[in-house]
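Troubleshooting log. The previous run stalled partway through. Resubmitting the same two chains, unchanged.
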Amino acid sequence: MSSGIPDRDIIEEGGAEPGEEEALEASLTSPARLTAYLRRGGVTVPILTTLIAFLVAGIVVLLTGHDPLSTYSAIFKGTGLNWLFPWVSGAERTTAALELQQTLIQTTALILVGLAVAFAFRAGLFNIGGQGQYTMGAIVAVWVGSSLSGLPAFIHIVLAIALAALAGAAWAGIAGILKAVAGVHEVISTIMLNWVAIWLGVYLFQLGGPLQDPSQSSVPVSKTVAASAKLPVFWGPAALQGLDIGIFIALACVVVFAIIINRTRLGYEIRAVGFNPDAASYAGMNVRRNYVRVMLICGAFAGVAAAMDILGWKFSLFTNDIQLSQIGFLGIAVALLGRNTAGGVVAAALLFGALLTGTSQRNLDPTVFDPNLAQYLTFMIQGLVVLLVSTDVIALRVLRGGRGIAVGLRRPRGPKPTSTEESAT
Amino acid sequence: MSAGTIAAAPSRAVSAKHVGIAGVALAAIAWFITLPPFLVRTPVPSVILGLAAMLAGALALQAGETRLGWVDLVLGTLAIAGAFASSKSGVGHLKTVFVWSALVAAMLRYATPLLFAALGGIICERSGVINIGLEGMMLMGCYFGIFGADVLGSWVLGLVVAAVAGGLLALVHAVFSIHLRANQVVSGTGINFLALGITGYFFTAHYGPNGTPTKISTVPNVKLPLIQHVGFFGQAIGDANLMTWLGLALVPALALFLFRTRWGLRLRAVGEKPRAADTVGLPVLRIRYLAVIASGMFAALGGAYLSVAFVGSFTPNMTEGKGFIALAAVIFGRWRPGLALVATLLFGFSEAMADRLPTFSGTLATLFQALPYVLTLVAVAGLIGASRPPAASGIPYVKE
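Second attempt completed without errors. Output:
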């Protein structure tokens, strides 16, 4: 092995820990184990996790001299989700509609990067590289979208999306191939690839960079996407960033995700390899080829996410944007909170999309809470969600009135020589 | 440090190894002679030397020294390409970019934060806990270091505050990954988000749009009395920051601790074979807790160097991926302090080059920023030799 993280949780002498873990096989990969726990938690645990995260962030707000309730209600108003309430009417409803469009625009990309991470999890792989795959997709999307301006709209859009997906897939494929051929752990390779992609993007669009917009020589930005490559807006005014059809493409990808995972031979193999590579190999499946295929599909999802952002509402790519974007990491939060299922990813993406929009400069009422602060509140909530979701099993124990949190420490020494190494999540 | 390699290597492999190392040296000379102060203006001698390096590589390959053999082939090619590049560019440009003393000074400046964080990463991973959260822990030190230096009026206390803040965030990682047995990669990701949120929030709440004040007590540079005015050395190391020296001193200290002391052995045992360590009565979980917290303090000191020593101010997300470069240095350095130092110097050098290369081409210099990550990818792919992590890293330990 050649990287910091074991592929498998090694369990000596076979014996499983008594209690809940017993049902899980010893040779599970750690992402598979995590997936199993996440799924066991049902809907309750993600909801509980979210509530705790918001509660803790609320305490921070309180301690720094603001009113958490009015802050959260201002953030909620900023998300535009109050549009769904039938009693909201008049000007308020118009504003809410505009804000909801923003929320759904954010949700679109989050769904797709969430799928990119979730798909890997189902296959027993950690895709920390959503950021790099997204960046590569964005580079290609903005390049294709801005350069081939003579094409008919439909063809131009399809071409841009397809090539962005390919770029993301190729980038993720590097990690897949490295894992299949050299046994490089995908966490290490995808982290490194993230930064290579980011610097590549900065190189291309920086002042004097090969793809920088020549008409704005003092701005480090790409050329603007041609009108023929812009996704049609179907709700709200296009000038105010109305909702484009990207959300439907994202939802279609969710369906594709669910079908691949649950209804195809490929999905079956992927899940089998994810659950237990040795057993899958014994059953005649090509484990290495599966790693590559999974990463390719993950990267494609992330590439499409970038295409939706670029062709839907960003239309150009600033180097600053490339360096500051956290969307690939947000994808991890979305996938984990969504328990790596199709429906869960959509719900979690909506939550984070709403949070991003609700705390944005544009939508949060600055008289209630400074949007500059709120932006960091969002990061805190995301961090807490990721931390808490990763310890689902604990929440479960608490819920069931189990033996408390510190099981690992308090369990008395048993007489039988059973395993001491065990992965919980 | 590496007792195993001496014992196992047969004599024939040693000679092949020597050929391989000679190849590396030849490649280095091939490129070096075209740069200041030698400035050979024709690539011919470099091509000959480069080809000799590749020949050495081929010989080493044939003798079974695959790793060094491939390195020679790659370096030989690069040296020839580099020699052509430098013979094509103007002497004036070369003299501005390759001011070796200034490059060394810049390399040390850029390497220092990476070094602290990488040493922290080594402690943590040697105990069997993966630390993707180095970035976040650095960021904590970055903000709370300057906050402490500002509020308490002294950089010493600033560094203390930074270490405490980093240690506290590491404690969160420890609780989640050791006690609650959360997945360590996921927990680390959460830690990074949390640090970004906490530092950004408190920075904005406390300092607002004006940022940190300009007059803040910063870590002083060490003016070496004798060397300071001695040409090359004076410029290279005569005026380095105190924390740079501290970081360099920590390398042998940590190496001694890990490989020559009882507690170092215990730490490594916990990371390699926790079951065995537990059987002989070592407190596995406690050692892991201490290691994770120590790593957070180290990383935070690296972050504090950025704000309290290097720049003198703080901006949100100031570390910009330095924690991940440090992680790369841990892996590139095969979990050894000495090799990690080499890695951080290499990465620091590539950053220093990225600073200076704009003389030739402002755009291409940016790609140098990606070099640490590319090199690490090459390293983990096994081209520069397999790097083996501590056997139990990433696996939560459950006491029976």
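Takeaways: DSSP finds 18 helices and no strands in chain B. Residues 1-10 of chain B have pLDDT under 50 and may be disordered.
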